[in-house]
Amino acid sequence: MTGRTDTTDVLVLGGAGVDTVIPVPELPLPYADSYMIDSGIRTRAGQTGDFVALGLAALGLRTHHLDLLGDDPEGDLVRALHREHGIALTALPQPAGTKRAVNLVGPDGRRLSLYDTSRAHPDDRFPEARLRELAAASRHVHVTITQPCAHALPVLRGTGVPLSTDLHDWDGENPYHEPFAFTADVVFLSAAALTDPERTVRRIAERGRARTVVATAGAEGALLLADGELTRVPAATPPAPVVDSNGAGDAFAAAFLYGRLSGEPPERCARYGAVAGAHACTVPATRAEAIGRDELLRRASEPGR
């Protein structure tokens, strides 16, 4: 990679969209003909790629986001979010419309997400020349598991730029996730659907390219596999009451990548991730807000936090 001039720290690929957030009295939500939502139903920009990009930018990293967006009100919300936070955005046209979802959020911060899969086509692709250009100008590429990104993996691997991905609530078996898991250099995933998290993270490292795999487990912390060594990472103490877990995994990934690109060892990167994830759980689902660098470094240095 000698002779290159990086203009971007992290290129975030895919995962742009809009969520409609509905606070509900409990999850699972018992059947009823109707519910009165006194706290309001709100629609805001922010899906996994948006939140990773937001987290990276808040930590001072030069961030560029590439995805397909519709010429619709949802797409306008995504564009406005990036303008507001100074995040470079390459928005390719998506005739099917901007991705959208409905999030039901319980009083304890848990959520149930309903994704509108009609706003995508099997032949959705990122133009190869543009993809190569943006990747070549970046120190790192974070790839979401949306469908166009699956087709982008061979092109990205050929650029030689380090890759990361988040498998979210993968069960360790669904074959759709495997190309992402076995192509990336850094793999994040939730342990929520795993019967044996240690076995899964080791399998990812053995079958793929990743030397770093992180399985997050909410209040139970995370499992970090780095260069063959397994470490339990304790959860960080949230700085305020937990109101919504949406975006916690994205915040963890962004802060971990900040540490990695700053030259920190994996254990320190995971500590950053835990602090950022805990912060994200205190942010209401109706807001798009990420922890800043100074606050992250301060909290990560506090003992017992």
UniProtKB/TrEMBL annotation:
A single GO molecular function term of this UniProt record: kinase activity
Domain Carbohydrate kinase PfkB: 188-288
Record's keyword annotation contains Hydrolase: no
Annotated Pfam families: PfkB
Keywords of this entry: Kinase, Transferase
InterPro entries: Carboh/pur_kinase_PfkB_CS, PfkB_dom, Ribokinase-like
Cleaved signal peptide residues: none
CDD domains named among the record's database cross-references: adenosine_kinase
Identification of the protein by name: Adenosine kinase
Organism field: Streptomyces argyrophylli
